[in-house]
């Protein structure tokens, strides 16, 4: 992968603007902007169900009806009528229009409030609620349901419907990760359009007519693509629910933490939802430079190991062939004693490209203190898909290239060969299970000293003389550089279990024990020192990275999903 410093983006071309009156106030908007987006920018939110800025606009829910007007065309010889501010007087149409599919033009007037639009919304809400089940107390969508919200804001206080409700299928297995409750469906078609337009998997559709219309999977098909859970995110009601999150927690009890996904090198922006130090779900958040508003299923479900019963929770030191719980002071001292007096060419460090930039920077300092030239990270690659998933399955390979100045995996085969032959007698494994690299228990058992830092109990930890329990991505703060060269930030969502420590603290203490020099008291201090040494971090802090990250280098990596999204936006198919 070729990398280069990020270049300044060219200024965008000038945009034609038009004057639009919204609820009596005049604004300027780009010509051709959707009315619903213009209202949003003006601070006048229009209720909607079927509309989504990343999808086409079918205009089938009719919830976004607003009043529209234009200046009357003057008769020949007459001047257009003006108001006291010199703006044209609006002539209002007698019927409403949908705001999601119509665009603004010069002199247009829009009313989001008024008798006509309010009556229309009440009528739409009454229609949607005729056959809707009153099961909010057991519905997973309760607390983030648009039907609940808009029924309070725009609906009637009571129902006039006295007939029997139409019964539809419930708890339908439509795929391995999604359940369908057709009685709750309001036929917004968001899920259908997502599958067809975003992930090219048109497996959903409507069947029957009128009040008996139901959402269904096409015969012989399943909703099982790697992006299926995005349909749960965009469903405005509780029709589609996640099998993994179903009946687990009420959303108003959850704490939302902005972070990034570490399942692959894309670094999709997401929110971690937790309660009482337990993670319950991960959902995408919008970043139009990384993942739009989507996220793959594998990434969002890659959190259960954080709550695993196999987590390492205290330092262990092997004595008489058995691991015993130790204090951090004794464990760090044991590592220092294990490497003391060993020639540098007999020491190897195998780290992980899942480490943050701050951890890689301290790992480099530790390697320098040990004097060894045998160090590397474990590369992981897999075939990329045509949407978001990157071929590089490590989240911070560019951090390795930037901070260590080496290509991931360049020395790994030689290091493994030297361990196998017995040339290397001391190994520090930082965040990796060495047995997955082809090394055997017999080979590792012959090492003079083996220390490992990891989050889960594994075969390498079992063979280690010292085991140091570390932190997962959800328990730490730090930064990573994704495959497109964007510097992004991890944020701490839950506390560390037991006596586990943040990895940067472990590395700092190891450096202190080996070399005796340090002075770092927080991960922000590590970033500041790193920024003073490495050009692309200069002038930045962890805080200044922000929630959406900053571009720090250019790579040849493209994001297929975003490329197609830009094309659709340019053609006016979506707002984007």
From TrEMBL:
Gene3D superfamilies registered for this protein in UniProt: 3.10.20.740, 3.30.70.20, 3.40.50.740, ADC-like domains
Cofactor(s) named in the record: [2Fe-2S] cluster; [4Fe-4S] cluster
Residue ranges annotated for the 4Fe-4S ferredoxin-type domain, each copy included: 176-205
Protein's name according to its UniProt entry: NADH-quinone oxidoreductase subunit G
One of the record's GO molecular function terms: 2 iron, 2 sulfur cluster binding
GO biological process: ATP synthesis coupled electron transport
Record localization: Membrane
Segments forming domain 4Fe-4S His(Cys)3-ligated-type: 116-155
Lineage: Bacteria, Pseudomonadati, Verrucomicrobiota, Verrucomicrobiia, Verrucomicrobiales
GO cellular component: membrane
Source domain of life: Bacteria
Translocase is among the record's keywords: yes
SUPFAM superfamilies in the cross-refs: 2Fe-2S ferredoxin-like, 4Fe-4S ferredoxins, Formate dehydrogenase/DMSO reductase, domains 1-3
Family under the similarity heading: Belongs to the complex I 75 kDa subunit family.
Keywords: 2Fe-2S, 4Fe-4S, Iron, Iron-sulfur, Membrane, Metal-binding, NAD, Translocase
Principal cellular location given in the protein's record: membrane
Domain 4Fe-4S Mo/W bis-MGD-type, first and last residues per copy: 254-310
